[in-house]
Amino acid sequence: MTAEIKFRLNGKDVVFNGDQLRRLIDVLRDDFGLVGVKEGCSEGECGACSVLKDGALVTSCIVAMGSVDGSEILTIEGLRDTEKGMCIIDAFADGGAVQCGFCIPGMVMASYALLEKNPDPSEEEIRVALSGNICRCTGYDLIVDSVRLAAKRGAELWQ
Questions:
Q1: Whole-angstrom Cα distance, residue 149 to residue 14?
Q2: How far is the C-alpha of 132 from the C-alpha of 99, rounded, in Å?
Q3: Is the pTM higher than 0.90?
Q4: How many whole angstroms separate alpha carbon 60 and alpha carbon 48?
Q5: Hey, what's the torsion of the CAs at 121, 36, 56, 114, to 10 degrees?
Q6: If we measure between CA atoms, which residue out of 133, 123, 126, 121 comes closest to residue 76?
Q7: pLDDT for 29-72, tens place per residue?
Q8: What are phi and psi of 19, to 5 degrees?
Q9: pLDDT-derived band of residue 82, with 50, 70 and 90 as boundaries?
Q10: What is the C-alpha separation between 132 and 122, in angstroms, rounded?
């Protein structure tokens, strides 16, 4: 069913005219050219397609466009244009948490969602927050360490 869906995408008002059952990931990549959102499993299990919808971390491969009407969507492209986003991205790079890079956009989005709610997370809290994201290259220790580094470096950002 075709619908006009209005929402905010990375801080800008946008309109999507199309099938309300179409997946958010497809619209982000194909219609808006936001290819930082990766498709891994297509089942909402790997986290590579993670975005924030109204501040909550969601896997865009299982979100229908009809549920996006009136929402605020933040992708890795929008996050990287912020001081908080760059703090996390730089920490991942400096901490050696990036190898192939496929999972990193989702990991960064999950890290941001965590730090927004808990600016000083424990190792266990970081691991739980990242548990919906799969990494096959780096291993989770470097990623967890990078989230801790981002929390430390950006302590004043998340207060």
A1: 35
A2: 19
A3: yes
A4: 9
A5: 0
A6: 133
A7: 999 999 999 999 999 989 999 999 999 999 999 999 999 999 99
A8: -65, 120
A9: very high
A10: 17
